[in-house]
Automatic annotation (TrEMBL):
<keyword id="KW-0378">Hydrolase</keyword>
<dbReference type="GO" id="GO:0003676">
    <property type="term" value="F:nucleic acid binding"/>
</dbReference>
<dbReference type="Pfam" id="PF01844">
    <property type="entry name" value="HNH"/>
</dbReference>
<dbReference type="GO" id="GO:0008270">
    <property type="term" value="F:zinc ion binding"/>
</dbReference>
<dbReference type="InterPro" id="IPR003615">
    <property type="entry name" value="HNH_nuc"/>
</dbReference>
<dbReference type="InterPro" id="IPR002711">
    <property type="entry name" value="HNH"/>
</dbReference>
<protein>
    <submittedName>
        <fullName>HNH endonuclease</fullName>
    </submittedName>
</protein>
<dbReference type="GO" id="GO:0004519">
    <property type="term" value="F:endonuclease activity"/>
</dbReference>
<feature type="domain" description="HNH nuclease">
    <location>
        <begin position="332"/>
        <end position="395"/>
    </location>
</feature>
<keyword id="KW-0255">Endonuclease</keyword>
<keyword id="KW-0540">Nuclease</keyword>
Amino acid sequence: MPQASRFQKWRNVRTRGLKLEQRTTRLIPRPFLKSSNRDHSVITEMAKIRDIGETRKRSDDIILVGYFLSRCTEFSDGEVPRPPASLGVDSWNGAYDLFFDVLSDGRSQQQFRHTLRNTRDIFDSLFDNGRKGWSDGQKRGAELSERDRAVHDHWIRRSDEELLNKVREFFGRPGRRRNPDWTRDELIIALDYHLNNRNYDPRPESEEIGELTQRIAKVGETLGLTGHEVLLRTPDAIAMKLRNFSSYDPQYTENGRKGLPNGNGLEAKLWEEFSGRTDEVARVATGILKLIGTSDAEAATFGDIEFEAPEGRIMTRVHLSRERNLTLVKKKKEAALRKHGCLACEVCGFDFLQTYGERGREFIECHHILPISLLGEQGKTNLSDLALVCSNCHRMIHAQRPWWSMDDARAALISTNRSRSQG
């Protein structure tokens, strides 16, 4: 080999060794780094750290629970891996939270979720559970640590029921109330922030995230998710939620960044509904915050909301409150009787009095026709903002997202009637 080639090879090896040393300085004791055979010793020590470092941070109980979550993953439909059905939860975060009280060992909720998820993923290569496993799908079974493999060897011949009974020992306190799932209202506030800061990575300690945390806390309090001045979503949790949105944002990911995938699923729906309508998101987010503390926002309880609008629960509450206002409804009916002499549905023409006799006199419902995203900008509700509709048409208007306008409901009725007549 020519002299220049040998020198180049030596320099490449030496450079790699120095870079490795720089990356591991915090892990290796300084006297160790001063040994005469430094590069070789660093590599040897790093091999030891890779072999036991991760599992040393995890208790044997966390390893066992992670093994259970991987082995008993629900994959019956062959499409979406879900938490074990025996846990009775709908999301993976819900599954992790069952063990938080007993196994968190000082970790925050988000840190614990990550630890347990990563532990679960380690075992994915051993089971046909629909997930790709550790490290973007590269099977890791051959790299299980001794502690990981010991758990597998001990439980592989025992039933899932026995394994479940064992991990139940690590369930949290029976009376503990875990944090509720994120609501549309909270996520809309977060999405509005992301769309205005989409090229920046959120920092939990920043002033901006602190202010966002307070805004989202007000939403949670208004919805009854938490008490006054109780922080339901921490700055760390909010920063992670913003990274969930980043994972769907092509403007963020175009340079190779990934964000944080695998949120609770609602982020993806909101991104699909609102990401192309930045002004609309800003209007809705502003409206939600403006309506907080108003009597309309406080008027309805969760049981009253059968159909939640895309804009969230607070605006849905205001919408329902205004169309159920007894004074406004009475005035709207009186105006219709003076003008038309009857109370007929403005969509289908149904008249309760004609159909049911005296029992149906003055019986009809009111629907607030103003686009719900504008509720935060509107003060007083006018009679022209209300329409009289029968119960069936009212339910159809609210049945799915997005809600129908009055014209949408009429068009659907006309189309259906036309199809029947032609059939």
